[in-house]
Amino acid sequence: MDWTGYRNICDRGDVLSRFLLERTAALLETAGEDALAMNLRKVVAGEPLPKPHDHRGGASSDFFVMDLDTATIERIVAIVHGARCAGSRTPEGRSLGGFVEAWQEYLDWQNGRHPRSPNRLQTP
Q1: What is d(CA 96, CA 3) in angstroms, rounded to the nearest whole number?
Q2: Which pTM value belongs to this model?
């Protein structure tokens, strides 16, 4: 894959990073949402997007095309939002800044509210 194609795919709302998925799974487990966490762990156990041949990042820089249903995404957004409001942090002690926004962008992509979504809602 060339760099332009890779960047274009990674910039889509339905493409999420390994970092986000792994940290969200840990957060979901802490919240007792083991089934949701397992869904995300299955994604990161699969094949990431192919990287350009001269990409220097390892597995930590992987991205995955997501295919979750709307109800699942909504539930994740709600849990992550609640955790951020409660002051939760990642296992490394980092804030959840950007987590809600990334999941909301995926939800908007899925629902056609994102401006670049292929399912873009038409407004009269």
Answers
A1: 29
A2: 0.89
